Amino acid sequence: MSTDATSTAPEPIALPVTAVTCLEDRAHIERTAVLDLEAGVQRLRLGPVSALAVDRTLHAELTSGHPASVLDVRIVRSWTPRGPRPSADEDSALRRRVHHLEEERLVQGQRRDRLHARLDLLGRLAADLLREIGEGAGRGETERSRWARELDRVDGERDAYGEELRAVDARLAALDAELREARRAMDLSEHEPAELVGHVELTVEATAAGPAGLRLSHLTPCALWRPAYRAVLDGDSLTLETDAMVWQRTGEDWSDVRLTLSTARSALAGDPPRLSEDRLTLTDRSPAERRTVDVELREEEIGDLGPAPVLGLPGVDDGGEVRVLHASAPVRVPADGRAHRVPLSAFTTAARSEYVCTPELSPLVTQVVRGDNQSGHALLAGPVDLIRGSGFTGRGTLDFTAPGAPVELAFGSSDDYRVVRLTEESRESGGLTQRTVITRTVRLHLSRFSAPGEREERVVLLRERIPVSEVSAVDVRLRKEVCAPAPDVLDTEGIARWDVTLPPGGRRTVTLVYELSASAKVTGL
Questions:
Q1: What average pLDDT does the structure give for the chain?
Q2: Continuous segment of H or E residues that includes residue 289
Q3: What is the pLDDT of residue 287?
Q4: Which of 440, 433, 446, 444 is CA-nearest to residue 518?
């Protein structure tokens, strides 16, 4: 690595970025240039390029039919130190401002020291005066007028100097803040930062002189992307715009590049897992274990497509298959480390809207909108901005959705509804079978508050769950004859559903009753 470039070094050939494939945590950069080759072996210097380029991923090839071949390609990095400070005669207005603030700060600091000395002297004077008054009173002296006059003068001077000291402290605090900002602005505007720059050294061999096209590619860290969406609900139509949020701090701007977005994870190892021995052993159950069946109630989330969610910045959820998306037009992404929104696609589909409530989780009634994915590509999991007639309503999440599959979005809760959930439980044990029967009753009170003049009825989908038994010793039974009304649907996961129709200002009560019956061997309920 060299420290500086000599004056006799040839001017490097420009090697701009023309195409970028942004991966989950890095970017694959592609550069193109036209080289004017001479006959024979020659070494060319191209660039500058990002110093963060990964050397082992560097690949160069000649794209035209020119009779030439690449012998060697490498990245050479150079370090440019900070430039010298400008002379005093050529100081800028900002530098003179910093000098003026430093001088004023010095003056105010000296003034504060003098005020502290005066206040200390006045404090000692007041202590001497009080001691003199105490001694004189002990000897029978009474000089009340002189003592009062001296105390008033000392107190007045202490108050005046104290107020002046507070003003000086406030001015010093303001000077410190202004001086920090001025020095920061001067560092950013006048000081040349140290810079690490990379250049590509290319060795080629040509049998004849002439132009030849070059394509060079490499991986670069400090770049990533995540999907983002914008959903607009307009009556019975849903418009979903797919964007990509791109961050990059590679040291060079991407200007008018063809952007490709991929979910490939090039950093993952491709080695198969190591097989280890797994021994299974059988043990006899104890007499106590034969007599009892230990059960427990546990919560289980219903599985869905895609990987399990993780805390922090999530990865790209692609459903287990590499997805590739393309920007419709050349884009520009500066190397400032900020998020830049790149539009990818947009489609409008018919919207099917319904109001859904799961009182066990939340007493709110949520408007859920469903439509078909007509984008032509998979919708990856990511945040979505929700917009409807009144404007921006909030931000939700979109799960992974395959092409043509239904899209489900929650557009927030509706304030027109109120849901109250009450539960009761009774337990009975005995009889010839010695079974324990637990009866649970869930009552859902649903109310609708409507504006004057509203006549339209609305259907609210209520969802409530009942336990699902995994052992034969425990039986769960829905008592449809007692439910009012009976659930419209009860699936294998134990989710009961009702379609409740509410007129304006209407009220409905839904009652769900089910039993858990367990034999005498069962413990844990």
A1: 85
A2: helix 287-291
A3: 78
A4: 433
